[in-house]
Amino acid sequence: MLIFWVIAGVALLLLVLTVTVGDFLDGALDAIDFTGGYLSSTAVLAFLATFGIVGGLLLTATDVSVLVASLGGVVAGAVVAAGAGAATRSLTHGPTAHQITSSDYVGQSATVTTSIPSDGLGQISLVVAGQSTALAARADGPLPTGTGVTVVSNLGPGVVKVSTTSPSSHDSN
C-alpha cells in the first residue's frame, strides 16, 4: 500500500514543480510522443498521481487485492491523463498560444491615442492576436490623436516607428 502513496506523492511534487518552475520533462517526452501532442509531462504526472491516489484509496478503504487496486488506478489514471493531455494540447496549440513579439507589430494598423510630435514620442493603440496593446511611437512628422497609422519598424522595446495610413487602404479595412 505504501508504494501507491509514494508514487502519488512524488508525482504530485513533480506536477507542482512543472506548473511553478516550468515543463522540465517535456523535451524527453517529445522524443517518444506518438500521440500528436497529447503526451505531456502534465499528462504523465497526472496519470501517476491519480494511479497512486486511487490505488492507495482502494487498498485502504476496501479489501481488494493489489492487482485490482492497480487496475483501478490505471483506469482512473488513464481518464485523468487523457483530460490533462487534451487540456494541455488545447492550451499550447490554441489560437492564443503564440507569444507576441515586437516583430508581430510591424505592418499592423494602429490608431494614434496620444499625439505624436515631430521630434518626440506619442502613443498608438493596436490589436495583435486579439490583444489590445499600447506602444510608444515616433513618426517622420507630427500626427494628431485619432490618426490611422501603420507600424513600419521597431525602434526598441515598446517603441515603434509609424507612418500614416493612406486613405484608400484605411477605407478598405
Question: What can be said about this structure in brief?
Answer:
It contains five helices and five strands.
Largest sheet: 5 strands, mixed, barrel
The structure class reads: alpha+beta
Classify the helix fraction into a percent range: 40-55%
Q: Span between N and C termini?
A: 66 Å
Name the assembly state.
Answer: single chain
Give the H and E element order. Answer: HHHHEEEEEH
% residues in beta strands: 15-25%
Overall geometry: rod-shaped
Give the radius of gyration.
26 Å
Per DSSP, the total helix count is: 5
Q: What's the β-strand tally?
A: 5
* Number of individual domains: 2
If strands are numbered along the chain, what order do they take across the biggest sheet? 1-2-3-5-4
Give average pLDDT, whole number: 81
Topology diagram in text:
Blueprint lengths: L1 H20 L4 H7 L8 H21 L4 H28 L15 E6 L7 E7 L2 E9 L8 E9 L2 E6 L2 H6 L1
Helix pairs in contact: 1-3, 3-4
Protein architecture, described:
This is NfeD-like C-terminal domain-containing protein. The chain crosses the membrane at residues 38-59, 66-87. Keywords: Membrane, Transmembrane, Transmembrane helix. The protein has 173 residues and is of the alpha+beta class. It folds into 2 domains: 2-93, no CATH class; 102-166, OB fold (Dihydrolipoamide Acetyltransferase, E2P) (Beta Barrel), CATH 2.40.50.140. The protein contains 5 helices and 5 strands; from the N terminus they run ααααβββββα. The chain has helices at residues 2-21, 26-32, 41-61, 66-93, 167-172; strands spanning 109-114, 122-128, 131-139, 148-156, 159-164. The chain has a 5-stranded mixed barrel with strand order 1-2-3-5-4. β1 and β2 form a beta hairpin. α1 (2-21) runs antiparallel to α3 (41-61) and α3 (41-61) runs antiparallel to α4 (66-93). The longest helix is centred in the middle third of the chain and has 28 residues, at 66-93. Mean pLDDT is 81; it is low at 168-173.
